Amino acid sequence: MTPVHFSFTSAFVLGLMGLAFNRTHLLSALLCLEGMMLSLFIALALWALQLETTAFSTAPMLLLAFSACEASAGLALLVATARTHGSDRLQNLNLLQC
Q1: What's the number of domains the chain is made of?
Q2: Domain extent for 53
Q3: Gap between the Cα atoms of 64 and 39, Å rounded
Q4: Which Pfam families does the annotation name (predicted)?
Q5: Angle, nearest 10°, between helix axes 59-85 and 26-51?
Q6: Which one, of 13, 62, 18, lies nearest residue 39 by Cα?
Q7: What 3 state SS string does the chain have?
Q8: pLDDT tens-digit profile of 22-34?
Q9: Using 50, 70 and 90 to split pLDDT, how confident is the model at 96?
Q10: Is residue 35 part of a domain?
């Protein structure tokens, strides 16, 4: 395993562990998701550069576009949750309540 591969794998795993274990605020969960997507984007871009083919050159841009859509949807949910519940704490959210 190369040091570059190890660093991107560890960045993704740290984001996943932060998402799994630190679930107090919605903003921290969104930041962990963004960290995971950033490590995936950089790893995919470097992989496309190493293969030197044009078939994989659009994959990082497609991932970046989906990451931007995910971030905007997450921020919209964060604003809606803060307006209705008063905070972004995940313990206050209940899906069974209308």
Answers
A1: 1
A2: 1-90
A3: 11
A4: Oxidored_q2 (PF00420)
A5: 180
A6: 13
A7: CCHHHHHHHHHHHHHHHHHHHCCCEHHHHHHHHHHHHHHHHHHHHHHHHHHCCCCCCCHHHHHHHHHHHHHHHHHHHHHHHHHHHCCCEHHHCCCCCC
A8: 878 888 989 999 9
A9: low
A10: yes
Q: What pTM value is reported for the model? A: 0.83
Query: CA–CA separation, 8 vs 6, rounded Å?
Result: 6
Do 92 and 85 meet the contact criterion of CB atoms below 8 Å apart?
yes
Nearest Cα neighbor of 90 from 20, 17, 11, 15 is 20
In this structure, the number of other CB atoms found within 10 A of the CB of residue 74 comes to 17
